[in-house]
Amino acid sequence: DCYVTGQGFFGGGLGDDDVDGGKTTLRTAIFDLSGGDATVRYWRWYSNATSASPAADVFVVDVSNDGGTSWTNVEVVGPGGPEVVGGWFQHSFRVSDFVTPTANMRMRFVASDEGDGSIVEAAIDDFEILRFDCTEVCQTDLGFAGPGNAIFAVCGEPLDSGNSATM
Hints:
Layout: E1 3-4, E2 22-27, E3 39-50, E4 59-64, E5 72-77, E6 85-94, E7 106-113, E8 119-130, E9 137-139, E10 154-156, E11 165-166
Antiparallel strand pairs: 1-8, 2-7, 3-6, 3-8, 4-5, 4-7, 9-10, 10-11
């Protein structure tokens, strides 16, 4: 599913169906990360670059680990810069870089028009929660048969930045 702030009507004006005089919020359903960390990835589209007061507003993305009682900021798009003129941009983050993963995770996306009149539009698509269930692996025989009984083994955490394994 793709979520869009408004699409207007065929033949309508540019600002007929944008965010006006406040904010609109999209919240995900609660998801469970009590079994470990994950990466959240999504594509976003945002524009605040047209009208009499361009580049005056922001698009905010937050994460919660208590079902939405409190929020931690993941990213703020705008008020200026290259990602506020429309176009799709992918963003991803590791949940544990912001909050401790729990069984009550939730995301929110907030597009606002709280300053002078500007045309604000936003969209979210391809929201994914990527979780790799990697437990310690100990591969005792890598198939190098030959004379003798030497063993080559790799044991430890998944080979990822900051992790370690022993050969």
